[in-house]
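Q: For a teaching handout, I want to show students what a protein-ligand complex looks like in token form. Below are the inputs, and the small molecule is adenosine monophosphate. Please produce the holo structure.
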Amino acid sequence: MKLYNSLTRKTEEFVPNVPGKVAMYTCGPTVYHYAHIGNMRSYICEDVLEKTLRYLGFDVKRVMNITDVGHLSDDGDNGEDKMVKGAEREHKTVMEIAEFYTKAFFDDCALVNIKRPDVVEPATNCIPEFQNMIKVLLDKGYAYKAGENVYFDTSKLKDYYVFGNQNEQELLIGARDDVTEDTNKRNKNDFVLWFTKSKFAQQALKWDSPWGVGYPGWHIECSCISMKHLGEYMDIHCGGVDNIFPHHTNEIAQSESFTGHKWCNYWFHVQHLNDRGGKMSKSKGAILTVSVLKEKGYDPLVYRFFCLQSHYRKPLEFSFEILDNTVAAYNKLKKRVLELKDDGAVDKAVFDEYKQRFSDALSDDINTSMALTVLYDVLKAPTNDATKLALINDFDYVLGLDLSVRKEEEGEEDSELAAYVEEQIALRKEAKKAKDFAKADAIRNELAARGIILEDTREGVKWRKA
Ligand code: AMP
Ligand code: ZN
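A: Here is the structure, written as tokens, with adenosine monophosphate included.
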């Protein structure tokens, strides 16, 4: 299996530390808000990676953290605390916010067939592990105390900027103009391991520590949580490209200073989902989630299909027009699969041939669009339906598109659609009343794009499927 490794900037043969076994780690969500469909792109691609490894016969153990403390709005330890911000916004406690958004995250993952990692660990569960690592880093001279916080000293490393091509120094300078530099830092990119003198008087979660009552920095959690469950050697670490710097750079700095040896061999980074305004992000106002897509009448698996059509290392542009086209393609594909009859014995030679082609596509740095091409080729193949069906069900373990699953809850889907359309009709009525005809037209057009026709009648607005 070949994988692009962001650390070496090369596509390499994947060789795990222990033959046949894979220790895999994913940076999980910061649970101060919903995960938007951009975040979900990363998690879908990581899910495909995990399932590909399993499909190819590897025994995978995958760990994910849940960031419920320590993540500030600027990844360089500046700005506001994201969890505190979330709690204030909703007049709830930090733990209530964490619980709510962790559940929302896994509910959304389930909607797009993302398998739950084998281990999911919230950062607040692991304070003793964090403190132990910080103690060792202080003892070894890689960390220092300043202004009542503990910092990692990046100047102690021969090579701190390990992901060379990301132009990390510039990235940090460009990160935020509106935050004040922390003057306790000896070097610009030193990062906080433990805060006791927080800028936030109201800091919600605090723990006792040898350095005073406080809370951990963000980066330490991934090093400790991964080592707690996977040991000191890891095979693959995943995240979105924005995690490369400073987060992953800092994870490597502290992990390798702690253990004294190389930590993780392969780094898998997913490019961003962008909308017309650029990178999709949580701070941009209304958050588009897969649940929202569902409320709008889309099958969430259409979004998964959309993600699989492009390569994970290419930026992906999202718009509702593109999604509408994907709906048509997905429905057509599913219809063809559902029409296949279980008509006899599976032709083993044909099965093996196409399975090999599918495996080869995925083994080529997770080439999902090529894997989908193989699926379409199966539909056209000169073989019986039973063989086609067997292949498609086999592929669907990785693709997760439920292609041969007939929806039993069709009725439920219909009532959700009806509720959505009624809501849109009410909004359109309000827009007309306010003489906002552009908005009224936009609502009608949006529904039309989804195959819903509105008819203005004397009894009010009626609707039907086109
Ligand atoms: P966060 O909850 O902000 O820590 O992000 C969760 C994951 O989503 C991380 O792996 C990020 O790198 C990734 N991510 C954030 N924004 C996007 C985006 N627009 N497209 C794809 N992945 C993203
Ligand atoms: Zn992480």
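A: Two things your students might notice: The radius of gyration is 25 Å. Residues 27, 29-30, 38-39, 41-42, 239-240, 242-243, 270, 272-273, 279-281 surround adenosine monophosphate (ligand 1) (CB under 6 Å).
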